[in-house]
Write the structure tokens for this entry.
Amino acid sequence: DTGVSQDPRHKITKRGQNVTFRCDPISEHNRLYWYRQTLGQGPEFLTYFQNEAQLEKSRLLSDRFSAERPKGSFSTLEIQRTEQGDSAMYLCASSLTGEGRNYGYTFGSGTRLTVV
Amino acid sequence: LAKTTQPISMDSYEGQEVNITCSHNNIATNDYITWYQQFPSQGPRFIIQGYKTKVTNEVASLFIPADRKSSTLSLPRVSLSDTAVYYCLVGGSGGYQKVTFGIGTKLQVIP
């Protein structure tokens, strides 16, 4: 297993277009997270899945954002009607939890979105 | 949920030991302390995790006092490649899903 993979690495889109990002987590990890990071800031939580169930969504995740994780494997994050304020690095992470402990995130390299 | 406070930036010369302290006064009983490193245009990378006392791995040590209200990440003999942002996170089995990382500590290693 080579870690968490994200695709694409970079995406430039025109305002108003829809974009979709994909994340392939570490296979034995049961949790998958999406974060967003802008320049000079730390990652901000967007949403997370426990297997295929989406258990938490941040208020940052407007109605234009949707995430799925079919069959508890890969996940997609879709942004509809993109706005310039959506320009950021979108990070995916996975983790293994058990026995009352979270063993820490493994992050992917991210997808850098630029909305022009 | 425990909030963390770290210095915004630190400078160090190559070869020196660097200690970055994180305050987390409201840490809960089942919370672990985890440190991450992030280089530009990459996702954060797990460095070390601990619950109490001292933890050491091949890249760092983590010191946690008995009251667990703070923790110190220690990087021995830093090199230029250790220049990065370091984040301290506190969370339990529920993960850190409600936690924003904060701006972290930007470590600049000087030749």
